[in-house]
Design brief:
It is a single chain. The chain has 8 helices and 2 strands, in the order H-H-H-H-E-H-H-E-H-H. By secondary structure, the chain is mainly α. The protein has one domain. Helix 1 packs antiparallel against helix 2. The longest helix is centred in the C-terminal third of the chain and has 39 residues.
Length: about 270
């Protein structure tokens, strides 16, 4: 019998992803809204859950890249990653929407919210199952594309938009219409995850690549801005980043091959 290979560092990142998803769920279930307004303690729990979902997104981005960097990809890692993803990027965002965002809708709309959250979770599971099947096919390792919107990006988009909503409420700005936007976004993301739209995977990201000095300076400035101004930039910039990636899937086929290659190679070599 062939021995099962389990590589420590990539799977440690996947375990971090799974742990973040579980902890996010524990914070979400502790939120017990009484009316349309959350207490300060509940708001902190929601923020913790959002940061944990985004943390799971970071761990998910690291596990595969570390495995490819050290040449330690394995079928076990692929299956473990999908099991972690369904918790962190399927169950946690769906439960977040159903329990937190849609809590003050009337009974009928609350049921609609439950259906939408359930559909999101189901489509996420189907997306992961399809990805695993495609990955098992010959020559799939050379693919630079995802079929359908990736579930980690979908969850990060839900989390970042929710973070934006919390930020609006803290500024005492109206948020009722944004709840409908988030409900519509969840439906759209559910469809996109099982769609045939192709997205760049950025699997070839190489931390050892050499880039021009100006791009290095720009990257350092951007990182510095996030470090010192993250409280103001994150609620606005993150939703824009993930929305841009979502829209790019529709724009991408209309770009010339040269322009598409330049855009995606720049991201791969960041």
């Amino acid at each position: 019998m062939e021995r099962l290979h389990i590589y420590f560092l990539p799977n440690l990142m996947t375990a971090g992803n799974l742990l973040c998803g579980f902890l996010a769920l524990t914070f979400i279930v502790q939120v017990v809204p009484e009316g349309p307004v959350f207490s300060d303690a509940d708001v902190e729990k929601i923020k913790n859950a959002l940061w944990l979902i985004l943390g799971a997104f970071v761990f998910d981005g690291l596990d595969g890249r570390i495995a490819r960097l050290i040449g330690k990809e394995s079928p076990f890692g692929l299956q473990f990653d999908s099991l972690a993803d369904i918790i962190s990027f399927g169950a946690a965002p769906a439960f977040l929407m159903q329990r937190v965002i849609l809590h003050d809708f009337d009974v009928e709309l609350e049921r609609l919210g439950l259906v939408v959250a359930s559909v999101y979770l189901l489509c996420g599971a189907l997306r992961l199952a399809r990805y695993n099947c495609l990955s098992a096919m010959p020559d799939s390792g050379n693919s630079r594309e995802f079929l359908g919107f990736p579930i980690p990006a979908s969850a990060a988009m839900v989390a970042s938009l929710t973070m934006f909503l919390v930020w609006l409420e803290e500024k005492n700005l109206p948020t009722s219409s944004w709840r409908w936007v988030l409900l519509a976004v969840l439906v759209f993301l559910s469809v996109m995850m099982v769609s045939e739209v192709k997205y760049p995977s950025f699997k070839k990201l190489d931390f050892r690549s050499r880039r021009p000095f100006t791009k290095f300076v720009v990257a350092v400035v951007v990182i510095a801005c996030f470090v010192f101004l993250w409280k103001y930039l994150v609620p606005i910039v993150l939703p824009l980043i993930f929305t841009s990636y979502l829209v790019y899937g529709f724009v991408r086929p209309r770009l010339s091959r040269k322009l598409r290659r330049e855009i995606e190679e720049d991201f791969d070599d960041v």
